[in-house]
Design brief:
Elements: H1 2-20, E1 32-36, E2 39-43, E3 79-81, H2 83-94, E4 99-103, H3 107-110, E5 118-120, H4 137-144, E6 147-148, E7 155-156, E8 162-166, H5 174-184, E9 192-195, H6 198-204
Parallel strand pairs: 3-9, 4-5, 4-8, 8-9
Antiparallel strand pairs: 1-2, 6-7
């Protein structure tokens, strides 16, 4: 009897330990599902306790300039968010089509791997410059729920979606440039969110990419 009781207690303890070792995103969020290019993707942390980020995302020797630390506040009225806010945005705004997550990096970066549920719109498409920015502005704004004002110049932002913009990390200037470009066009600051940690934070936290 004692032997069986001891075995049962050990099994219960092992089960409890196994459950406690589950690597969740937060206390209340184990994972979230998003749609990426028509495919359902589960966003979840790497469950291996000894997992490490890829070497490229642990590099600290980036030259400044151009890879200089970005300010915590990218522009007045634009909220800076972290990983948990991004995940909750995926669960809520993204699911109910009230918002979009924008990978503002150039396509060569995005093709190496992106955050599930993101749309790649390079920062050069969201600002007016000699590099061709603005040429794709109307196409991008159509996705954002923004339309040209009828019979006058400018944009109608009354149905504009909330946007989270991100790039490679706190040393990357691509999403800040995109945010400033959107603000220059009149996009409401309260509908723009800056994920400053970007891909580097995402990778270091052990979250999957596509």
């Amino acid at each position: 009897m004692i032997r069986h009781l001891t075995a049962a207690l050990l099994l219960a303890a092992a089960t409890s330990l196994s459950q406690a070792a589950e690597i969740n995103i937060s206390r209340s969020i184990e994972s979230v599902m998003v749609e990426h290019n028509g495919i359902e993707v589960e966003i979840k942390r790497n469950q291996a306790p000894n997992a490490r980020a890829a070497p490229a995302w642990t590099l600290t020797g980036r030259n400044c300039p151009p890879f200089c630390v970005q300010p915590l506040t990218v522009a007045p009225g634009v909220e800076t968010v972290g990983i948990l806010e991004v995940v909750k945005f995926m669960r809520d705004e993204l699911t109910f089509e009230e918002g979009l997550i924008i990978d503002a990096r150039t396509s060569d970066w995005s093709e190496r791997g992106t955050i599930p549920g993101s749309i790649n719109i390079p920062y050069t498409h969201l600002r007016r410059s000699t590099e061709g920015g603005g040429f794709h502005m109307e196409e991008a704004f159509e996705q954002f729920g923004v339309t040209p004002k009828p019979q006058e110049s400018g944009w109608d932002f009354s149905n504009a979606k909330k946007l989270i913009l991100w790039c490679n990390g706190w040393w990357c200037g691509q999403s800040p440039t995109a945010i400033r470009g959107l603000l220059d066009e009149g996009y409401p600051a309260e509908k723009l969110f800056y994920f400053r940690g970007g891909m580097q934070s995402w990778q270091l936290y052990g979250l999957n990419t596509v």
